[in-house]
Design a protein that fits this description.
The chain is an alpha/beta fold and 259 residues long. The chain has 11 helices and 7 strands. A 7-stranded mixed β-sheet has the order 3-4-2-5-1-6-7, with helices on both faces. Strand 6, helix 7 and strand 7 form a beta-alpha-beta unit. Helix 1 runs parallel beside helix 2, helix 1 packs across helix 11 and helix 5 packs parallel to helix 6. The protein is globular, with a radius of gyration of 18 Å.
C-alpha cells in the first residue's frame, strides 16, 4: 500500500504524521519505506538524525537519473533500490530528500517526467508499506506522489484558514485522480493539534463532518513531546511509548487499517 500525506498548507504536521505512522507500521512487522519529497528534508532528519550530505544517495539522484544526469555512473537504471537508507529502527527505511530537488523541478516538468516515480515504485520490491511526505504546495513532487499513491491522508490543524485551504486541496486531489490516477482515494482527514476543550476546534471539525468530508475519528493532540521527539530523532512510539500521543497515533494507524 502506498500512502501520500499531503496538504498545500505548511505547518500542519505532514512529516510528523508520515514518520510516526511509518514507525508504527515497521513496529508491526511490516517492511516500511518513507519517501521524503520535501526539499526541507524534515522526514529525513527525523528518521536518520541528520541532513544528508552532498555524497549521499537521495531521491534527487533518482530524478537526475530520469533526466539522464545520473550520478550513479555505471549503475544507471537501478531505480530506487540503490538510494534507500536504513534507519536505526527495525523494518523502517527512508529514501532521503536533498536540496537539489529544487533546481531539478523545472527540467522535470518540461520533460514531463511526472509518472517516473509511479513507474519506479511499481518495480520496487520488498516493501509492505510506503509513506510519502510531500512539500506544502501542489508542485511536480507532490503531484508525482499523488499519481504514485493508492491513498491520500490530509492533515488538518483546526484553523479557519486551514479550512478554506482544505476545499482547494480536495479539488486538487480530485483533479489528479480524474486526470492521472483513477485509483487514488482520500483515505481521510487527520485532525492534528486538536484541543478538545476548546470550542473553535470542535466547531470546525463538526462542520467538516456535517459537510460529508472524511474526517477520521482518531485525532492528534498538541504536545511538547512532538518537538522533543524531533530533536531526539525518534518517532513517538520509540521516544515515549507509553505517552497519550503515542496511543493516539496507534489509534490513527488502527483506524486507517480497519477500512
Amino acid at each position: 500500500m502506498r500512502r501520500v500525506i499531503f496538504n498545500q498548507k505548511g505547518g500542519v504536521g505532514k512529516s510528523t504524521i508520515t514518520c510516526n505512522l511509518a514507525a508504527i507500521s515497521a513496529m508491526e512487522g511490516k517492511r516500511t519505506l518513507v519517501i521524503d519529497l520535501d526539499v526541507q528534508g524534515n522526514s529525513t532528519q527525523y528518521l536518520l538524525g541528520h541532513k544528508v550530505s552532498e555524497s549521499d544517495k537521495t531521491i534527487a539522484l533518482f530524478f537526475k537519473d530520469c533526466l539522464s544526469l545520473s550520478l550513479f555512473g555505471g549503475d544507471k537504471g537501478s531505480g530506487l533500490d540503490a538510494i534507500i537508507h536504513e534507519t536505526p529502527f527495525p523494518n523502517l527505511f527512508v529514501l532521503p530528500s536533498h536540496p537539489d530537488l529544487e533546481p531539478l523541478q523545472g527540467r522535470l516538468e518540461s520533460r514531463f517526467k511526472i509518472f517516473k516515480l509511479k513507474e519506479a515504485l511499481e518495480k520496487l520490491e520488498g516493501f509492505d508499506a510506503i509513506y510519502m511526505d510531500t512539500p506544502p504546495v501542489l508542485n511536480f513532487y507532490s503531484q508525482s506522489a499523488l499519481i504514485a499513491a493508492d491513498k491520500c491522508l490530509i492533515p488538518f490543524d483546526c484553523d479557519t484558514f486551514a479550512r478554506e485551504a482544505l476545499y482547494t486541496l480536495m479539488q486538487s486531489v480530485t483533479e489528479v485522480k480524474a486526470d492521472h490516477n483513477q485509483k487514488l482515494e482520500v483515505e481521510g482527514i487527520i485532525v492534528n493539534q486538536f484541543q478538545k476543550q476548546a470550542n473553535l476546534p470542535r466547531q470546525l471539525v463538526d462542520e467538516l463532518i456535517s459537510e460529508g468530508l472524511p474526517v477520521l475519528e482518531a485525532m492528534i493532540s498538541p504536545s511538547i513531546k512532538v518537538r522533543e521527539s524531533h530533536t531526539a530523532s525518534q518517532p513517538l512510539i520509540h521516544y515515549v511509548p507509553n505517552h497519550k500521543l503515542s496511543d493516539e497515533y496507534r489509534a490513527l494507524y488502527a483506524e486507517i487499517h480497519s477500512k
